[in-house]
Amino acid sequence: MGIWAPILLHGIPYISDVIESEERCMDSCMEISWNASLIDPTHSRQSKPRTTTGLTMVLDKGLGLTAFRDLLQLASAYVDFIKLGFGTTGITPVPILQKKIEIASQYHTYLYPGGTFFEVAYTQGKTSEYFYTLKRLGFDWVEISDGTVSIPESDRYTLIEEAQAHSLRVITEIGKKAKHSITPIHQLTHLFKQDRKHGAEFVIIEGRESGCDVGIYDDCGMMDTSYVHQVCSFIDHRYLWWECPQISQQIELLHLLGNDVNIGNVAVPDILSLESLRRGLRSDTLSTMTSLKKDPVL
Predict the structure, then answer these.
(1) For residue 112, pLDDT beyond 70
(2) How far, rounded to the nearest angstrom, does the alpha carbon of residue 291 sit from its chain's CA centroid?
(3) Residue 158 burial by CB count (10 A; 0-12/13-18/19+): exposed, middle or buried?
(4) What is the 8-class DSSP label of residue 35?
(5) Is 161 helix (H, G, I), strand (E, B) or coil?
(6) What secondary structure letter does DSSP report for 64?
(7) Across-strand partners of 214?
(8) Where are the beta strands (DSSP E) in 101-180?
(9) How far apart are CA 181 and CA 106, in angstroms?
């Protein structure tokens, strides 16, 4: 009967006993570790806290507390930010929302609401209340975007500063969610520099949850690599986040910009896949990591 033998009652283990047994197993396994060269053949992957590069943002579309905790228990070392997608922040019960913030903090991961919820507040003239409530709930970051609504440029910068006045750190987003939309490079460059000047710490390039027919992606999800190269030639892409939800897109972006590129809108099941790509632990990137080395044969 193995591990369950001491804790069975009529053939069914108590949940608390199961958890305790799992924790004992995990503690004993902590003494076992892989050679560093095996888990990071690139010899270059940064560990947390990562400040400006190599960041991964995961999209949470409505995880319950158990799934949320499981995600971070398994993969918190590879996740820097979790975005609560769309307007789900507003319809998540407050106790659960605050518990998520608490759990994320315990795992040194930032949780923040998606930009669409901000846009709702903007259209209703309630941005001050929005920022105030976020801070009361325990959020440290906010996204300011205009993917669906139109916000005059002067208002955009005032809103960045207003969020900071509420002690919120700001991420902005550039790009529209409408099909076939793409921001001209000169406009993107201008907005990026002005957003940063007014206090935005990171700027996201719109790619939506689908990664299709918007921004740098065509209707089949193929990436406009020329556009990406041109953007990076004009701005400091250390502070740029590419929404890149599809694995094939992540592979291409890593080939273009290296394993320290900031990638967002990653699906929960793809977290370990992306981290494997960053480290050269998938065949798609194994041979392209320039710092790939072999340990000497003894």
Answers:
(1) yes
(2) 25
(3) middle
(4) -
(5) helix
(6) -
(7) 217
(8) 110-113, 141-144, 169-174
(9) 39
Q: How confident is the model at residue 16 (pLDDT cuts 50, 70, 90)?
A: low
pTM: 0.86
Beta-bridge partner residues of 242: 205, 263
Q: Give the list of residues 6+ apart from residue 100 with CB closer than 8 angstroms, or none.
A: 65, 68, 92, 111
Helix (H) or strand (E) run with residue 101 in it: helix 94-106
- With contact defined as beta carbons under 8 Å apart, do 213 and 261 qualify? no
Amino acid at 283: S
* Contact status, residue 112 vs residue 141, Cβ threshold 8 Å: yes
The residues with which 2 forms a beta bridge, in sequence order, are none
Q: Which two tokens stand for residue 143?
A: 């996204």
Beta strands in the chain (DSSP E): 8-9, 12-13, 56-60, 81-84, 110-113, 141-144, 169-174, 202-205, 240-243, 262-266
Instruction: Read off the pLDDT of residues 128-163 as tens digits, 9 standing for 90 and up.
Output: 999 999 999 999 999 999 989 999 999 999 999 999
Classify residue 214 by its DSSP letter: B
How many residues are recorded in the chain?
298
CB atoms under 10 Å from CB of 21, counted, come to 15
Backbone angles phi, psi at 124, to 5 degrees: -95, 5
CA-angle at 197, arms to 195 and 201, nearest 5°: 65
What is the distance between the alpha carbons of residues 181 and 155, in angstroms, rounded to a whole number? 22
| 202-205 vs 262-266, strand pairing mode | unpaired
**How far is 137 from 124, CA to CA, in rounded Å?**
20
What secondary structure does DSSP assign to 224-257, as a single string?
-HHHHHHHHHHS-GGGEEEE--SHHHHHHHHHHH
Note the pLDDT tens digit of each residue in 238-268: 999 999 999 999 999 999 999 999 999 999 9
CA distance 199 to 46: 25
Q: Tell me how far apart the alpha carbons of residues 44 and 50 are, in angstroms, rounded to a whole number.
A: 13
d(CA 120, CA 136): 19
Alpha helices in the chain (DSSP H): 15-29, 36-39, 65-75, 88-91, 94-106, 115-123, 127-137, 153-165, 185-197, 225-234, 247-257, 271-279, 283-286
